[in-house]
Amino acid sequence: MLSRREFVRLSAAASAATTLPLNLLAQAAPVKKLRYAPVGLGVISVQHFMPGTRRSQFGEITGLVSGHPDKANKLAAEYNVPAGNIYTYETFDKIRDNKEIDAVYIGLPNSMHAEYTIRAAEAGKHVLCEKPMAVSAKECQSMIDACKKNNRKLMIAYRCHFQSSYLQARELVRSGAIGKVEVIEGAAGFNSRPGVWRLNKKMAGGGPLMDIGIYALNASRFLLGEEPKVISAYTSVIDQDGRFNEVEENCGWTMKFPSGAIASMTTTYGANQESFVRLHGSKGTLEISNCAGYEGIGMTLHLNNMGSNETTTQMDNAKDPHQFVNESDYFSQCVLENKPVEPSGEEGLRDLNIMTRIYEAAAKSA
Amino acid sequence: MLSRREFVRLSAAASAATTLPLNLLAQAAPVKKLRYAPVGLGVISVQHFMPGTRRSQFGEITGLVSGHPDKANKLAAEYNVPAGNIYTYETFDKIRDNKEIDAVYIGLPNSMHAEYTIRAAEAGKHVLCEKPMAVSAKECQSMIDACKKNNRKLMIAYRCHFQSSYLQARELVRSGAIGKVEVIEGAAGFNSRPGVWRLNKKMAGGGPLMDIGIYALNASRFLLGEEPKVISAYTSVIDQDGRFNEVEENCGWTMKFPSGAIASMTTTYGANQESFVRLHGSKGTLEISNCAGYEGIGMTLHLNNMGSNETTTQMDNAKDPHQFVNESDYFSQCVLENKPVEPSGEEGLRDLNIMTRIYEAAAKSA
Question: For the domain bounded by A164-315, which CATH number is listed?
Fold first, then answer.
């Protein structure tokens, strides 16, 4: 095992990174908050983003957008949202006249991300939009353009960019702790229920790659700090049970990065596949376990250079919606202080471009 | 955790498979043994195959082939090999006149496998040849042809085909325990010392794919029981330290099988990469850990179908050269009873063909 002192040395830079980039704690004045309206009241909004924002320091829920009045009314009561701040998809554009809402959180099916991001930006609201950013690179670009034109912030909700295991891991890779990264393994998948919008190509844009494989893909780019140069891929459908008439069931791909690092990954909607990303370097191995998880994300550093053989595992025991608290606070502060956001729309677009290349490579070989 | 009873049910067929296919224990007559001469006295012969055969029931070491007289004499004393049964590479063909040697074990650099297999077959000896079978598919075919022409047995020494975790895993896959296999992950690699023959293209035929990646590749075929339909791949060299002037340092590849199962794998000589193969099915996941190991190979079955969430891990605690004992005994019995061998030369050729396709795919994209 790595000694405590050794680990402290290695993760010195990493520790700094786990502190959020902006911190207003020292201010004496009453805290100004960013006022959010979640758009779409599905699981991700109701069970994760909204409770996360309620617990955050710099965000609060002041509006709601939903096609289900009953659900909206119930949540409005819970979050003290006035009736006048509840919108439907039909009345959504009137949000521009509401001075009690600064930003929206887009928790809709993927195909609606572009439309509601653009409408929100045109209504003068900042946008925090779920991943995947949209169903095409073209849509991503129009979202970026609309937010730029209206001088609104746009962030893609890759919550893992705010998670301590990821941040420590990135700093360890950057610091050279594992040497040069040679090969990367990664995976994320689950056995999908039938009848969900994720299986509808028009709404989802694609299959498990778009929804869950994106975590392993994004994590490899985030940790390595490079963009893939070339990509090859295959997709398949095995289960002819009606679930996969529109999107792929399985996808496997290999990417080569400019440094020469090679990553091979798989994703599926046909099996429960534990998510992880693992970087093998000349001096050691670094793994993020449960890399797509809402909680319980671990980081394992194994050093095997110069005869050493030491393993350190750190588990993030913070409970869901912890990642959403951090994400919400970060975006809130970026808007309140007018700072650039990261992961930006451009970051979301990069993943869309890569996933498009993966689907194109798979289609070519079909 | 899986209950004992549940596990027994699932692995009923598997248990049978862990018993070696042929068993002469019941015979009363004195045991007839197959008499081996190892060709090449490197680590694999001296530390693994020879001690394994000494402990086996149906094999014994009665000859030696080496270019190092000192080493040969020392081992001859240890194994009671008469001086007249020691050959050099120059005198090798005279082995045909030796009635005390039935078979050879080829533990040479890859580029010498074909030549010595063919010369042994022509000298009337059966051949147990290390993996990879040779450096090209053409060589493999000539080895198969030579053994057929001389009516000699040819087996490729994939020792994992005789290892209990592998055998149990294959039976579990065949029995449908994990349902339909959707995606497969696999890896195997190590940080190579400089100056070894494995880095010499002419002697090795290729890099880590040929030497260590082959374990993950072969394991996926062995467990799935299918041959890849299409393959894409990349190779790279990152460390410009003289080690990789001839062979690849890293390789990643994705394979699609006829059933639709997709496998993504990596291998490297630039990092210590723990070997494993993991099959994700519609009802559960099956993993072989340390899949390239001489000992300590584990099998983990995780069932997650119909609300179940049970994990069973079985570790093979038998110590090296246990796998070589089994392998040696199996080949010995096949020869003594004139039974077909598996893994045959055709099986070795299949891997060579696939590795050739991997290198071709990587070359195309370079």
Answer: 3.30.360.10
Asked if A91 is an interface residue toward chain B (Cβ–Cβ < 8 A), one would say no
Q: Which residues of B touch A180 (CB under 8 A)?
A: 238-239, 270
- Which neighbouring-strand residues pair with B301? B286, B312
Domain extents for chain B? 31-159, 164-315
Judged by CB atoms closer than 8 Å, whether chains meet at B234 and A256 is answered as: yes
Contact A224, A184 (CB under 8 A): yes
pLDDT in tens, chain B (366 residues): 344 455 445 444 344 444 444 544 454 567 899 999 999 999 999 999 999 999 999 999 999 999 999 999 999 999 999 999 999 999 999 999 999 999 999 999 999 999 999 999 999 999 999 999 999 999 999 999 999 999 999 999 998 899 999 999 999 999 999 999 999 999 999 999 999 999 999 999 999 999 999 999 999 999 999 999 999 999 999 999 999 999 999 999 999 999 999 999 999 999 999 999 999 999 999 999 999 999 999 999 999 977 778 999 999 999 999 999 999 999 999 999 999 999 999 999 999 999 999 999 999 986
Instruction: Provide the whole-model pTM.
Output: 0.92
| Contact between residue A128 and residue A291 where contact means Cβ atoms under 8 Å apart | no
- Contact of A253 with chain B, judged by CB distance below 8 Å, is answered with yes
What is the per-residue burial (b if ≥16 Cβ within 10 Å, else e) of A316-332? beeebbbbbbbbbbbbb
- DSSP of A179-226, one letter per residue? -SEEEEEEEEE--PPTT-GGG-HHHHSSSHIIIIIHHHHHHHHHHH--
Q: Please pick, among A105, A116, A215, A359, the residue that the annotation labels catalytic.
A: A215
ipTM for this prediction:
0.92
The answer to whether A260 contacts B304, with C-beta atoms less than 8 Å apart, is: no
Question: Which fold would CATH assign to domain A31-159?
Answer: Rossmann fold (3.40.50)
CA quadruple B74, B77, B80, B84: dihedral, nearest 10: 70
Judging contacts by C-beta atoms under 8 Å, the chain A residues touching residue B254 are 232-234, 252-254, 264
Sign, CA torsion A193/A196/A199/A204? negative
Pairing mode of beta strands B310-315, B64-65: unpaired
Residues of B marked as catalytic: 131, 215
Q: From the CA of A42, how many Å to the nearest CA of chain B?
A: 23
User: B283 is written with which tokens?
Assistant: 């009802």
